[in-house]
């Protein structure tokens, strides 16, 4: 892939999603013991992809992205509990809830810049978290939302205990999300948003309605994050307060930077590497996990992935 | 009436703790333009050091606290000199990531060294007793917190506006190259300000241990509150931080007294309203 991000891409939008689908299917077939992990990776990747649209493409540093994920998760959970167990309808409800919250909070947030914006995103997420904790009749408070069952997917494929359907479902939604994101980022609209990221004043001078473009991108990211939340609610059959936590926002940001912000496949790579690392380290001891992630974070900043890749490539190139 | 007085005095104590911790962050963030999210970890280390010294080594509170604070300052200076100074020119996001990583690392380290339980600081008899204020009795410790907050506010304002060091600091921040040309030792100033910030964080960790219990996740749990104070007060503004800390402390305490079910909601709601009203903080530098 070319490293020149300023030029419009020519790669067809369906190529990367198809690759994701293929890799996902191979993993699904080859690792029947790890379907839960595979589902989690797909959901996390979708969430980080959504964050990449906000941070990497639009250049809005946020530490409150979990609010959108949590909105989708609670909306899908409530929909399954009170209305219907139809998964695809629930997914749409979750995406809608994420988009709605992004639209409402974005209209308020996007008027601010830099550190103030960062802090306000934290505030929005914290307000959402305390609302969810207190509206116990609706959300179950600290115990979380549970007791809902999902109907069969497309009316035919029931969610089984091994998680075979869940994993396929999550992988398919991720591929679809990636396709949408790819199309949007390469569209004139996506180019305008990237232009705003590079130079807001210039784009405004060129006549681009800056705030409206950013709000549209933020809303789209909200829909993807909400869909990820809905997937998490449906495949786990429980929604907890951790889906709104500051830690989730921070971790997603870490994954994004790890994989490389601004390039959509970076979000996927970061999510896969991080989740695998988390899975292995946390199964040993949760505090060892913090040790490793802390060290990894510091290393990522001191030795940026791009530099590390370039170094590795030059080494390999020299040997070949 | 009594309720109002209770809210005001408890809110003041809480606000002072927030202020003592926030003031160092406000200086690094507003004056040095460095986003140090490991600030909460410094507060935690100060608190843990005091707890371990008073409890395990049975030192007197009055000796243990200065030693803990000095130790935190030394650690801050060391980290600044070794790593952080290379990050001053990086983007905000990179600074955020590095210092969050540092916090994670320090959390894991604290847990490995001291265990996951809540740490208690052994108070001397003078502070453990309660004081009768006429309308209610108050732990003497809380009066110390309020007094220390006022003292820190006065000392910090005096240092920044009246002393040579304050002049150096402001010069080094606003025009580093010019300041260096004039012979101001920029590196020393930066390192010393950072150490002072870490020391204040440590002091806040010790004094606030009653309100913000010392446990391994302390560094991240209360970081958000401190960041809110800095953002609402206006980065780099000492009077702004004081005003923001006290008002938010009172809002938080009032919501605990009047609507205990709603936890942090009013705190963050107040923050959103204040920031929407004044995006650059109450008192912008």
Shape, principal axes of CA atoms of chain A = globular
Uncertain segments of chain A: none
- Beta-strand percentage range of chain B: under 5%
| Helix-strand topology string of chain A | HHHHHHEHHHHEHHHH
> What is the quaternary state of this protein?
heterodimer
Question: Helix fraction of chain A?
Answer: over 70%
- Percent range for helical residues of chain B? over 70%
Key features?
heterodimer, A: 320 residues, mainly alpha, two-stranded antiparallel ribbon, 14 helices, 74% helix, globular, B: 285 residues, 13 helices, 2% strand
Which SSEs are present, and which pair or pack?
The complex is a heterodimer of chains A (320) and B (285).
Chain A: H1 15-30, H2 35-57, H3 66-82, H4 87-109, H5 114-134, H6 136-139, E1 145-146, H7 164-186, H8 188-198, H9 200-205, H10 210-236, E2 238-239, H11 246-259, H12 264-284, H13 286-302, H14 305-319
Antiparallel strand pairs in A: 1-2
Helix pairs in contact in A: 1-7, 2-7, 2-10, 2-11, 2-12, 3-4, 3-5, 3-10, 4-10, 7-8, 7-10, 8-10, 11-12, 12-13
Chain B: H1 2-31, H2 39-55, H3 61-82, H4 92-114, H5 125-128, E1 130-132, E2 137-139, H6 140-162, H7 164-174, H8 176-181, H9 186-207, H10 218-221, H11 223-233, H12 238-258, H13 265-277
